[in-house]
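Entry 12.
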Amino acid sequence: MGEVLDLGTLGLSSGEGRRLELPVRVDGFSFGGERYSVPGHSVGALLDVSHTTSGYSLRLRFEAELDGPCVRCLEGAGHRVEVDAREIDQPGGGDELSSPYLEGQELDLHGWARDALALALPAQIVCREDCAGLCAVCGENLNQAGAEHAHEAEPDPRWAALRELKLE
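Predicted 3D structure (tokens):
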């Protein structure tokens, strides 16, 4: 399981629902130019399936730990993402009521989990909210360098021509 689930095998009649606990494969992905993956490439997910009069109402929930770098300091981020996604598929209901993950009665769990995870990601994946990042001058990790880390100020480039003057 984890790729495609045939909802027809659940034998749900109109108005019935079922909650399933199942593993779902989640492949690695690129985000902000960095590579991230889910340890074991699989998550334990809860899938709620409700059969409506002519279609399905679906809810997918899981938590995923991401392996990959913090965008500020490049150390391991160890970021945890909670996913809670819903889909409705009502034949004849138009685009808003048509799930791209449901073809007939076959649910693409793999594709849905990947897309739901991507939508649940924050704007930046960081190791901690107060991450100081890297020093712009020397590249040292400012989380470990401490408050005393400093460099001499660069001279103002507008005065660069004066340095070339030869005064005897």
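Annotation: The first helix runs from residue 109 to 120. The mean pLDDT is 87.
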